[in-house]
Amino acid sequence: MDLGYTTQVVWNTLHGRPFEFSTYQNAPIDLPLKNFKRTDNLLSFHVELLLAPISLLYLIFPDPITLLVLQVVVVGLGALPTFWIARKRLESEWAGLAFAAVYLLAPALNGAILSDFHAVTLTSTLFLFAFYFLEEHRPWAFLAMIVMALSAKEDIPLLVFMLGLYILSWRHERRLGAATALLGLAWFIIATRVIQPHFNGLPASPFLPRMAIFGPTIEETIANALRQPGLIFGWLARPEITAYLTGLLATGGFMPLLNPLVLLIGAPILAINIFSSWDWTYSEGAHYSASLISFVVVAAIYGTAWLARQIASRAGTPFRRTAETLAVVVFAVSLFHQWQIGLTPLARNYRPPVIDEHHRLGHEFARLIPPDASVSAQANLYPHIAHRQRAYFFPAVNDAEYIWLDVTSPSFPIGVGELNSKIQFLLERGEYGVVKAQDGYLLLKRGAPGWLDGEALAAFLTFARTNNPPTHATAIQFGDALELVGYDADVHNVVTAGQLPATVATYWRALQPPAADYAISFYFTRPDGAIVGSYADATAALSWMPTRAWRPGEIFRVETPILAIGRDLGMLVGISPPDARPDDPAKRLSPAIAGISATGDTTPKVIAEARLAELFRFGR
Known about the structure:
The chain has 620 residues and is α+β, with helices and mostly antiparallel strands. The protein has helices spanning 2-14, 51-54, 64-77, 79-90, 93-105, 107-113, 123-135, 139-150, 156-169, 174-200, 218-227, 230-236, 239-251, 260-264, 267-274, 290-315, 319-341, 357-367, 382-385, 416-429, 454-460, 540-544, and strands spanning 375-377, 391-393, 402-406, 432-438, 441-446, 472-478, 482-491, 501-510, 519-525, 531-535, 555-559, 563-564, 570-576, 591-593, 605-607, 612-617. Strands 6, 7, 8, 11, 12 and 14 form a 6-stranded antiparallel sheet that branches. Strands 2-1-3-5-4 form a 5-stranded mixed sheet, with helices on both faces. A 5-stranded antiparallel sheet has the order 10-9-13-16-15, with no helix packed on it. It is globular, with a radius of gyration of 27 Å.
């Protein structure tokens, strides 16, 4: 989604409408949009002036790919100043190479690069160049990097302010330190107290309520934290927080602990990330930790240099050899952390991306939309149509001429069933007609005569019927109604220490014409067998093609939405009639093993008392 609105901001800026976008117009997101003075300008939400010069790249290639390539290139360039700083401090090119690799292996950077485009991600490299120019006593080049970093996002000035204090107090460069600190403080005030209020009309950042973790408001959170400091310590002791902090330190081989002053520069952003009701900010995923990595890496280099000198002076070993040995240790720890939760081919959970026919079909649909037409689209489709003046985030329709949807993709910010209802409502009202429907994609046009029936409906429902065999074959009959003939599981590439997002596709055959619209429910178990979660809500296939419409002999594919289940949870499945609650085992259809898997897979287990079939466990 963020790639989409950034694309539109960049495109509009290039076309003389600085920072304008229509993404959030009447969109159901977790921000008080009704209180905003304006929702049509990015500066109401974030102050990312760096996007203005970036927009010039759209003169060459006006496509979201331009932003993604820029992000990869700029972040990758951060390895150069990392190498130069480490080579100088550790007196070894080999140590410099080790730390350059440490930087590139950082899972937090993997997550940032593969999670849309964000200008703030570029600050990882900008701050590293700033440190390098600081080492080389090139103040004007240093300030140039700082100015670019300031323009990336409105909270980056807090890091610049802290960096100025570090230069002033520790490096004793008073003029440069004072200038840096004042520059950071001044721009923070201008960005958050002048620019943002001018555009959104709000007294404070619209994102501040996300930090209301000890009360319904940020004011009550602060008051409760002051009255009960134990709340803070309890929050910091949560496993998710300790895993996040440990992961950041592991990125630098825990050597940042030996140079806490540089590490402390990142304290403001670290606090914003940690004290948040949104767990994505403290997962090392997305872009939230990208600006911290430069301080983690520099602190690791400085910490390694200090420890190498201590060991060399006391043990009488050459400093260079000691530094190289320690650099190898840091690299090894960083490599292990990459293996744990990273997204490179070195990581244990890495899955190579696959572009299938469904993705290619999406490009055909995108080409049917005129470049100057207004469009409403789902989050995953939005970046492909955002380079225009008016593009909306479905279910907000507004004055859209076209609506482009894919019912097989995540339906955020609404549920699968609600997406179905909204599509039916739009069609029944007659305001929109079907231009094209195929494999779950649906392109509607205002005033078009088409309806979703006949050949159009058959083409649309091809996502629910399949002739392709499942990866894992089974033979489990549920009563005399349905047979589960197999399943697929797909774990998604995301940086997280918790459960990985995953989808499970189950393949079914009707044993006879179903007399009811059965509900298919999924249950998730810990290694000890205890059920810790379930999904019994709508799926795309059953929303559009309930079991009563299934014909014997055909294979139907029912896929879950993306669920946080993909590290070590087990997967169970059950069938319930329409008049029963999915959590009532007495009403479920009884499963029975009907045969041996032809693929040689382990035979699924039937849990008779719960009337569930256990299919597999992630991570095995």
